[in-house]
Amino acid sequence: MKIVSAAEMREIDRMTSERFGVPSLTLMENAGTAVAEFVLQQYPAARKIGIVCGKGNNGGDGFVAARKLHEARKQIHLLLLAQPSQLGGDAAEMFKKLPDAPVVVRSGDDLKGERAQAGFTADVLVDAILGTGFRPPVTGLYAEAIREINNCSAPVVAVDIPSGADADVIGPQTGAVARANGIITFTAPRPAHVFGMLANGPTRVAPIGSPPEAIVSSLSMNLITAPDIAPLLAPRRPDANKGSFGHVLVIGGSVGKAGAAAMAGMSALRVGAGLSTVATAKSVLLTVAGFHPEVMTEPLEETDAGTISLRALEYGRLDALVQGKTVLAVGPGISRNSETAEFVRAVLGKYKTAMVVDADGLNAFEGCAEKLNGKDHELVITPHPGEMARLTGRTAVEIQRDRRDSARAFAREHQVIVVLKGHRTLIAHPDRGVWVNTTGNPGMATGGTGDILTGMVAGLVAQNPTRVFEAVLTAVHLHGLAGDIACQSRGEHSLVATDLVTALPEAFWRTRREAEQKLVQIC
Fold first, then answer.
1. Would you tell me how many other CB atoms lie within 10 Å of the CB of residue 150?
2. Against a cut of 0.85, is the pTM above it?
3. DSSP letter at 222?
4. How far is CA 196 from CA 178, 180, 425, in A?
5. How many degrees, rounded to 5, is the angle at CA 147 between CA 143 and CA 152?
6. How many CA atoms lie within 13 A of 174 on its CB side?
7. Do 211 and 279 fall into the same domain?
């Protein structure tokens, strides 16, 4: 799903009506209906609902929501922060259809009055004051209304965006901004919906009638949604066998870090790869083999430090292992030993099999990132900001300050798919822009979750060797969703990496269900 700017959203609405013949009143009716449905789904027990409306189209959406909620037998307290004579266009038309007259608020004193306060003391409060077309700062009566919203105890649902927020801002908002426990926006998200952390709860994107052809954006950013990735999670052919779903070879592990390679190997199987083999240093082979019986193992020559040695390349030993494999996952637990780093660089230069490179597999290219190139084969790298900093010669702070352009520039320059991990993990393709993942939580900031992701990416690439980018998007989304599911039972503090593997079946099921419902929700 495309991420669009506020100006592009206005143009999308205009084109929807002028070129594709969808009346603007229909768009407003659909938007207000979506607001009402969101309120009913999120707060089914709420009886008394307050709705605070401005005089623009956002208020018009609020009028429709008030009518629909009234039809659902809810008690509505509607506040209008303007004279009815100030309404124009579609908002004025929707105002005429209200079942009851609103409380007209002309001043801050009116906001403190008994009739207005009845709205702020409702079970749920709907903020329909200002939409994404607004540019801060907000002043006057609207600013006072926002303060009332922020001081009330009711959960708040924002229509389109919390009033006072700048839809195009990537980062913290300034000035008066209404709090929100949920947001219902329309057609496509804007940058602040994705990156702004505007709500203490879900942000849902509802279709209201714009055809895909009308949704145009110059931002080259997309949101990963369940409908985007569901095709890769379709039921399997009845006559399928393990050879139908690829063979992953994980190259990694060392003394003290055997679990990383083992987790990568197991997570490749858990996302559906037909076979998974871990090639690791001889000293830790038994540890890896004991992790899970379904994962096969192969010993590699090792250094005195118990890491993989260059000797593993001698006499065609590794050649025989790589032969017949669909994808290589290089790096989990492999260590920063200098000889092992040389081994990693040799592997990437020698084989043209699809590869996923992570962790110390990436650190092996510190100071020589020009050798990390996917021109001749599919290459996916999954750095965290520190690893990305080492690859680019920058600091982690600089990477975090400019995550989108850092990932995009590296993907284009090196012809690789970049998965820049962190809050709102970014997936950059040399030619297909940047995609944003919104699943995941802080409980996943623990050792081993990156190794799980490496295995998942490799496992999905193994099953979809001609759709590598889509496989990467699917793996990243499922990884975060599994973390969210595990967090519900484990909590953020007690979450460990292998909890994600356990939660993957539920993550598959939820993704398929959301795709069937065409549900787009930003966690």
1. 14
2. yes
3. E
4. 13, 12, 14
5. 145
6. 4
7. no
Alpha carbons 412 and 405: distance in angstroms, whole number: 10
**Residue 231 covered by a domain:** no
Separation of alpha carbons 418 and 470, rounded Å: 13
**393 domain residue, yes or no:** yes
How far apart, in Å, are the Cα atoms of 303 and each of 100, 155, 284, 308, 365? Answer: 80, 60, 12, 6, 20
Give dist(CA 458, CA 450) in Å, integer: 12
H or E stretch at 67? helix 57-71
Based on the structure, what is the number of domains in the chain?
Answer: 2
Residue 511 CB-half CA count within 13 A: 30
Which pLDDT band holds residue 133 (cuts at 50, 70, 90)?
confident
Assess whether 24 and 157 both reside in one domain.
yes
Query: Can you read off the two tokens belonging to residue 501?
Result: 């593997």
Q: What letter does residue 237 receive in the DSSP assignment?
A: P
Residue ranges of alpha helices (H) inside 164-307 are 191-195, 226-229, 258-270, 285-289
Q: How far is CA 332 from the centre of its chain?
A: 24
440-492 pLDDT tens trace: 999 999 999 999 999 999 999 999 999 999 999 999 999 999 999 999 999 99
In angstroms, the CA 481 to CA 287 distance is 29
Residue 30 lies inside a defined structural domain of this protein = yes
**Residue 23 and residue 162 in one domain:** yes
Give residue for tokens 């229909």: 26
Measure the CA–CA gap between 74 and 329, rounded to whole angstroms: 55
Q: Which tokens in the block code for residue 502?
A: 């356990």
Interhelix angle 403-414/385-392, nearest 10 degrees: 50
Amino acid at 169: V
Q: How far is CA 447 from the centre of its chain?
A: 21
Quick one: 202 and 308 in the same domain? no
pLDDT in tens, 82-107: 999 999 999 999 999 999 999 999 99
Containing structural domain, residue 428 = 241-517
Cβ atoms within 10 Å of 164's Cβ, excluding its own: 25
Do 365 and 381 meet the contact criterion of CB atoms below 8 Å apart?
no
Strand 433-436 relative to strand 426-429, pairing: antiparallel
Helix (H) or strand (E) holding 488: helix 468-490
The beta-strand segments (E) located in 301-458 are 327-330, 354-357, 379-381, 417-420, 426-429, 433-436
Nearest to 401 by CA among 416, 382, 388: 388
**Helix count and strand count (H, E) for the chain:** 20, 18
Same domain, 202 and 281: no
Q: Can you tell me the distance from the alpha carbon of 350 to that of 227, in angstroms, rounded to the nearest whole number?
A: 37
